[in-house]
Design brief:
Layout: H1 2-23, H2 36-58, H3 62-68, H4 71-96, H5 100-122, H6 128-148, H7 153-172, H8 176-201, H9 211-218, H10 220-235, H11 240-246, H12 249-261, H13 268-319, H14 329-333
Helix pairs in contact: 1-10, 1-12, 2-4, 2-8, 2-10, 4-7, 4-8, 5-6, 5-7, 5-12, 5-13, 6-13
Length: about 350
């Protein structure tokens, strides 16, 4: 009963996280006449304030000492902060310049880019269906490039920057809230300096456009942190395979907003390119679900076969009065992705495995 309740709560948290990420294009236009860079700087400054308050409430500070003792992790965090700054800034500019559909394409392509990077950088091996999905995704980019007269640079920038960010986060391997705190701490001083420079030059919109506009700029911290908190709550309650499916909610919402709400053009070549991307993601999702099902079946079969032997060993151990050794948290969780379960390969989380 408890597991069922936790699972439902995790699903709602996941829908909330990806739903907020999908609906955020409605928020950035509210911040005009602030430009994309000014909005980005406010997002960095206020995100650190919000995350700092959250960590203060949770009393989670021990990770800072460990991080400062690891120059390698600090370097990776600094690079991740730079990469996500490019991603954030590009996305804000895309939305406020009327390119929501193309921005959504970037996040549709992202799982395919992540898989390709796994092959090229991590030497991971792909299954045939994954190769097919990547090939179809490449064909989609070609179709869009021919239709546009140039490659969809904005979509590719968003897809590659977020894929690189995901790779760096995987190597750093610290919690989402802690990671965001470290990244925004690095971003804070340059962002604050830029905002102060805007203020002295008389170009800042903060305060000049009224209290409501200033409050909206300050709310960028909540807009950044809230979906991350929901995502973290979902990640410990539902399998990664479920999160892998939920991740498509965000670009779907973005695409629908671009077409239905912002009335962006969808010429035939754009429909063709998007259709190929959706076909690739369908194949990728089907392959992930099939692999997940086979893995669970194999584990269940192995457990059934090993059961009698395990009982015999347990009886022998009990008879010998050997004290049992309790599992540590990391041993119990296996991969650390979900406590007490086996991690499942998904397009976004574990490419090619």
């Amino acid at each position: 009963m408890k597991e069922s309740t936790e699972g439902r709560a995790g699903l709602l948290y996941g829908i909330g996280a990806y739903g907020m990420w999908g609906l955020v294009p409605l928020f950035w236009p509210l911040l005009k006449p602030a430009g994309a860079i000014e909005i980005l700087a406010h997002r960095m400054v206020w995100s650190l304030a919000v995350v700092g308050l959250a960590l203060l409430a949770l009393r989670r500070w021990g990770w800072i000492r460990e991080l400062l003792r690891s120059p390698r992790k600090l370097g990776l965090i600094a690079v991740a902060a730079a990469v996500i700054s490019v991603n954030w800034g590009g996305y804000i500019w895309a939305v406020n310049s009327g390119q929501v559909v193309e921005a959504s394409l970037g996040y549709f392509i992202n799982p395919l880019v992540t898989i390709a990077m796994g092959v090229l950088l991590l030497k991971e091996r792909l299954r045939p269906a994954q190769w097919a999905a990547v090939g179809i995704g490449f064909a989609a980019v070609l179709v869009l490039a021919i239709g546009y007269g140039q490659p969809p640079w904005l979509s590719l920038m968003l897809a590659f920057s977020f894929a690189v960010y995901g790779l760096l986060k995987k190597k750093v391997n610290i919690g989402g809230l802690e990671s965001l705190a470290a990244e925004t701490a690095i971003q804070f001083l340059p962002a604050l300096a830029y905002l102060l420079w805007l203020g002295t030059a008389g170009s800042a919109t903060f305060g000049a456009e009224g209290a409501g506009h200033a409050a909206l700029l300050a709310a960028t911290g909540i807009v950044t942190a809230a979906p991350l908190v929901c995502f973290g709550a979902a990640a410990i309650r539902v399998p990664l395979s479920t999160l892998g499916l939920l991740q498509y909610l965000a670009p779907v919402f973005q695409f629908l907003l671009g077409v239905v709400y912002f009335h962006e053009a969808m010429p035939p070549e754009r429909w063709a390119g998007f259709s190929l991307v959706w076909l690739a993601l369908t194949i990728l999702t089907w392959d992930a679900l099939r692999t997940n099902h086979r893995s669970r079946a194999a584990i269940a079969a192995a457990a059934a076969v090993a059961g009698p032997a395990a009982d015999a060993v347990a009886g022998a151990v009990a008879g010998a009065s050997v004290p049992a050794v309790p599992l540590t948290a990391s041993e119990h969780s296996g991969s650390g992705d979900e406590p007490g379960t086996t991690a499942v390969s998904t397009p976004s989380a574990r490419p090619g495995r």
